[in-house]
Amino acid sequence: MDLPLSLLEMGCSGRCELITHPLPGQPLAPQSTLPHGLPPTNLSLEREVEKQFLQDPAWLPIHDTDFAFQKFLKVTERKVDVDSLLSSNPSPLHSGLSVVRDPTTGMLLDFTEVLLENTGLSAKNSLSLQRQPGPPSESLRGSNTNYPFLPGGMEELTLDQIKTRSEQEEEIDFENNLLKVPPGLKAGMDFTEKGATITKSEVNLMSLLSTLEDIPDLQAEAEQKEDSKAGEETIKLARTNSLEDLGIKDVESSPSPKEAGKEDKSKPKENPEEKKKWAIPVDISSPCEDFYKRIPNPAFKWPFELDTFQKQAVLRLEAHDSVFVAAHTSAGKTVVAEYAIALSQKHMTRTIYTSPIKALSNQKFRDFKNTFGDVGLLTGDVQLSPESSCLIMTTEILRSMLYNGSEVIRDLEWVIFDEVHYINDAERGVVWEEVLIMLPDHVSIILLSATVPNAVEFSEWIGRIKKRHIYVISTMKRPVPLEHYLYTGNSTKTQKEMFLLVDAAGNFLTKGYYTAVDTKKERTSKHAQSFGTKSIPQNTSASQDRAVWLTLLHFLSQRQQTPVVAFTFSRTRCDENARSLDSMDLTTSIEKAEIHSFFQKSLSRLRGGDRQLPQILLMRDLLKRGIAVHHSGILPILKEVIEMLFSKGLVKVLFATETFAMGVNMPARTVVFDSIRKHDGTGFRNLLPGEYIQMAGRAGRRGLDATGTVIILCKSGVHDMADLHAMMMGKPTTLHSQFRLTYTMILNLLRVEALRVTDMMRRSFSESHRDTQAHEKRISQLKQMLASLPPQETEGQLSDILPYYHTVTELQNTREALQQAILESVNGLKALSVGRVVIVNNKQHLNALGVILQVSNDAVNRTFTALIICEKGNEEGDGKGEDNASFPHLYNTALFIPEGPCSHTVQKLKLQDISAITVKTLKVIPDRIIDNYNKRQQPRFRNDPPGQAISTATQELLRLAEANPSGMATLDPVNDLQLKSVDVVEGSMRLRALQDSLRDFNCIHSPTFAEQFARIKERMSVQEELDRLLFLVSDQSLTLLPEYHQRIQVLQSLQYIDSSGAVQLKGRVACQISSHELLLTELLFENVLSPLAPEESAALLSCLVFTQNTQMEPHITNTLKEGIDRVLSVAQRIGQLQRECGIAQTAEEFVGQFKFGLTEVVYCWARGMPFAEIALLTDVQEGTVVRCIQRLDEVLKEVRQAARIVGDSVLGSKMERASLAIRRDIVFTASLYTH
């Protein structure tokens, strides 16, 4: 019998009241006055003890009280063991046992104790692979207090550092002879067959050269040693154990240095200074004949014959080399990845496969799982079998594993980067560069990319930072060639109007273009034909669009050209186009049944209400007719259903945005471009060749179609031919560095003393033009030159020769700048015209007068032909070709007057040779002078007297020189040539001051002045080049260095790091957080999240993951409004601080990146509102909402971790609750690919 009793809990004291007489007709009252249950309380120990010992019948039985009492005493009489509080982990053993054997019989004689070195290495203090593994809980993701493993190619050790490095921390050399020489031993077994070796001397010499070359390569210091020691040095270096890191080959295998010297001299052609090339392009034109001989039992076999480029790649993988494979989509790049995974399973190592997009990771997971079985998946919200030998993950996760020193890295053999051209992505491109720089030495790299023009340059960069060769395999061949058409049809009558524009061989056919234009013209009204078209309207109405699509799809399905992917560059356009095809049905009844059952089965794990979402119902209708839509606004589970149906060939027409082309290999028969313009976030532009190729490449299914069809719709008018040509025939986008500094990167590197941020910057692709090795070589040469120069005398009269040199160089620079200004001005060129008298100073002439005869027309290197007076016998300039290196003309303005009879010469002068323009001009007849002079240069006329014109001019010049022996009046650039710009005025004033100061120097009167000055000049020119190179090699020349200092300043003023650069608590927290680290950390430390309920904090944090603008105003609680204001004020503060420290981003831009459009949606979702109702609250599409909530879950996880580091357990558990509240229903349905 059911009694009408109910207990009502009153308040939170635990008091209850019994309700016995319920009101008639009313159900029983609720169990508690607190609808959300008890607030968390501290356990009262007294109550707990009472409950456990005094009220528990197992403890205090009612009958056998004696036994219970004995038992109770036993519990209470516990021996006090104070020492147990002091227990600690045993320290690592610092000694081990080694065996002493009889050398002849091998009998055991004794055991001795040997001390082990470096037992203290751990993940918290060492970058070495020799360190102890951390706790198992941290083995996968690592911990943010771990050191990363040493990045490959990072250390450039000096000899002293090598000597001081302890023997034990010697890295295992994975490249050379690991199979022959065990680590720690100096020699090993040689397993090669002795009989069959045929020595090739050249090969030997090459290996020798590389040996001799590597040493000076890596240490400039080694070159400082005298040559006499060089021989012994080489051998000594090779024997020190820890030099293995330097990549020096085992020298014992090459001839001894004496023979080496002989061989070297006999073959002087091979210059060991030659620049090392790290990227090696592989020739894929010649077929790979001996493939099966070279790999008799491959790690993986395919059911089809491999292409040449695939065979080449597999051969390189077998040799354990890194490769860069650039090929079109569907050319079969996955083969390379599959072989690497198979190899690592054979070798019992691990492979990591990274992709830029989560959806792509899911699809690859399914494919590889079917092929290999042992495959795991790590994305932001999913973690499946992480112990597998092949892990698939997004690049961001690999980056955090590297920074956090995950143990997975120890077993890693390959990292495969798919879709590497994503490095061009402005937002995320930097992640690829960080990962490539941080990978340790023993990991080989496989890069798969669409075709890029600068594959070799990119690989050269990776090779240089990793100090290993990268083999570049690039193929332009398409397995299924494409044909590109223009389509102008828009009705049943015109449905066949399809014109071939680019044929399968890749030729652009202008004929097709003009026919398309003509047919389009015929349809325009008579008015337009006679008066010219009005400017073509860009947008067409929906009904016109519908007509075009119906016509085209009808035409294609008749010709059996389905499945079709229609790329449309707007999500609304996609939806409208699909909806407008309501009259079209492209599937048979059998296909309809198959689609229906698959659809129902896939959605069976959704809750009932979620299955009735409008988007799902709409898509079900479309799918049954063979039509689908695929863009970021579609629910993820629907997208996966559509992809799977599409790859089965059941979706005949798919309206997709560009993201579909980034995805997995889902080829179609035909690709249609709705338009060739897209909006890229800033404005509309034409498609780039790279984007067009990526999308068009979806056409043509290997093994099914002979050619793929690409159709461009001409809805309003035919596109411009130049645009089409640029888009179809243009080069795809080159890979550019998007490297930028992020606070997470700076903090992660600062917490490890051994890694410097500048090292990371120096190795980035943006700095790849710096060839440090070549510079280092040149620097050591210059240092030697400096040492070998004779010392300079700076006594007595010569004491001020150095300041004199500096004054002279400054004077020359000023004069060159002035002359440049004069030449670029109109008045200057007028003054330097035919007949002008100038003063010439060069190697041959000192203050000689000349007259200009001709001015060249070349504006860049203008030359002046002039007649100059000189001594008899110095016409040729080879007379006493004393280099006037000491610039006597600078302080001595006395004009040149020949001592003997006056001669002359006609020369082409550069601007530098003309040291002044005088105020005088002469009447000359240039043609006659030049002809006469050239005639007398021929041997027959050598001794003829000079012609009339020349002798007159020479006499005039001589007369001028004799009239003004101490110097002539010259044209002043400011007053005479009217050059009034600030630079010129300042320059001419400085010039005058410098010229006056030159007269006061003593050194010019010294008898040995010229010789000493030449010496100083030589020394200083070497010194200047050395300084320039040292600057280029130093960190000071890094482009991002100023920004680095600004960011450090921001971090210091926010107290993330102290003045010495040590990471503080706030910095540790920020390391945990992958995006918007400053804002989140500040919110944590200012307790902004503490007063909020779990669902409110989730709603507030949605501003970090939501990026779109919304039109609707959210309705939210007051606490949330306050929270938003606090977030904005914190963001404003950080933005202003960044601005003050000099970072370019304005405070408004910084605050503007946080959008609160989804706060209400997330709040309601966390409170349990069904998804169907949530979709009505906002104009944001369902798919976007789902993606934001999924990413929000990752942010909540990060905040939870951060709260744990700070020790705020309340916030941690609140985040956990928020996370649980949003992880439900359709938003967190597992991907179909992973089940």
Give a description of the structure.
- It is found in: Cytoplasm.
- With 1235 residues, this protein is of the alpha/beta class.
- Among the domains are: 279-475, P-loop containing nucleotide triphosphate hydrolases (Rossmann fold), CATH 3.40.50.300; 482-528 and 541-727, Rossmann fold, CATH 3.40.50.300; 800-874 and 892-1020, SH3 type barrels (Roll); 1072-1227, Sec63 N-terminal domain-like fold, CATH 1.10.3380.
- The protein contains 44 helices and 27 strands.
- A hairpin with a 6-residue loop joins strand 3 (95-101) and strand 4 (108-115).
- The protein starts with 5 loop residues before the first strand and ends in a 13-residue tail after the last helix.
Whole-angstrom Rg: 41 Å
Main-sheet strand order equals 5-13-6-12-11-7-10-8-9
Q: What is the 3D form?
A: globular
Give a quick account of the main beta sheet: strands, pairing sense, barrel closure: 9 strands, mixed
Note the quaternary state here: single chain
Helical percentage: 40-55%
Structural class: alpha/beta
- Under CATH at level 1, the class of the domain at 482-528 and 541-727 stands as Alpha Beta
The CATH homologous superfamily of the domain at 482-528 and 541-727 is named P-loop containing nucleotide triphosphate hydrolases
Strand fraction band? 5-15%
Helix count, DSSP H or I runs of 4 or more residues: 44
Second CATH tier, the architecture of the domain at 482-528 and 541-727: 3-Layer(aba) Sandwich
* CATH topology assignment of the domain at 482-528 and 541-727: Rossmann fold
The overall pLDDT, averaged over residues, is 79
Poorly predicted regions: 157-163, 196-203, 211-274, 531-537, 878-886
Distance between the termini: 48 Å
Based on DSSP secondary structure assignment, what is the total number of beta strands? 27
